[in-house]
Amino acid sequence: MGRVTERRKVIRIRDGALSTRPDTLVAEEPLEIRLNGNPLAITMRTPGDDFALAAGFLVSEGVLAESGDLQNIVYCAGATVDGSNTYNVVDVRTAPGVVIPDITLERNVYTTSSCGLCGKASLDAVRTTARWPIADTPPVRVDTKLLAGLPDRLRAAQRVFDRTGGLHAAALFSEHGELLDVREDVGRHNAVDKLVGRALQSGDLPLSRTILLVSGRASFELAQKAVMAGIPVLAAVSAPSSLAVDLAAETGLTLVGFLRGSSMNVYAGEDRIALHTAAAHG
Q1: Who contacts 272 (Cβ-Cβ below 8 Å, separation ≥6)?
Q2: Which of 16, 101, 126, 238 has the fewest C-beta atoms under 10 angstroms from its C-beta?
Q3: Which of helix, strand or coil describes residue 117?
Q4: Which helix (H) or strand (E) is 65 found in, with range?
Q5: How far apart are the C-alpha atoms of 28 and 23, rounded to whole Å?
């Protein structure tokens, strides 16, 4: 099975002086996800938690909703000419009776950190396939001071990032700020899939009283994954995309961007944010 990190020789230049030394890099390998034996998608990922990644991906696609929907996940042998197991192909088998939706989308075959469909069709698809409408979940109130402290806690939990500097991370916190889980990956969407997949395997979906924090920007796809897992609050240390904001507004997702220190922008779902400052003007 692939390793999380690998070593490569690097020439370092510091103040004009050259030296040669090994450097630790984050590993990146393809993972093919098959559904009941049929190829579905390929994503570039950091090896590890592959079964959770595949399960979380299928939650986002509306295939899986609870642990009982999943029969098993296995690595597939025969992915190479000599028939050996590369541990880069997984087959997800659904339980008898699980209805498989039409997921022959343009994103099929290859997915990246920027993948996802665009436009109103995507918004409609997420809204109509979400198993746990966020607007119908019990009210959650999140303190701004609690939110402000989450990025530092996420950074402190990024063990592989400290050695490589090349990983995104996603973390789940309770509404009271308890760190529930954290995953790292070269793709921020994969890190979220790993979180959601582990929650599915543990029987913890929907994640209706949690906060999802991502280390980069908040794309449409990350907002989609939050909505499909029933997560009411998505926070990002960087900017959201316009389509992510549209999706949040349509589904009731609380979306926070540019979460840096005590500063943040609330783009949607502000009713869940408990403010301690004077009312905004303008």
Answers
A1: 139, 140, 141, 142, 232, 233, 254
A2: 16
A3: coil
A4: none
A5: 15
How many degrees, rounded to 5, is the angle at CA 183 between CA 78 and CA 92?
35
Question: Smallest Cα–Cα separation from 116: which of 256, 249, 254, 247?
Answer: 247
Number of other residues whose CB lies within 10 A of the CB of residue 189: 28
Dump strand ranges (E) for 175-219: 179-185, 210-214
pLDDT tens track for 168-184? 899 999 999 999 999 99
Q: Whole-angstrom Cα distance, residue 79 to residue 88?
A: 8
How many domains is the chain partitioned into structurally? 1
Which domain CATH number covers 175?
3.40.140.10
Does residue 247 sit within a domain? yes
Task: Provide the residue range defining the domain that includes 251.
Answer: 134-274
Task: Please give the Cα distance from 242 to 134 (Å, whole number).
Answer: 20
What pLDDT is stored for residue 126 in this prediction? 76
Positions annotated as catalytic residues are: 115
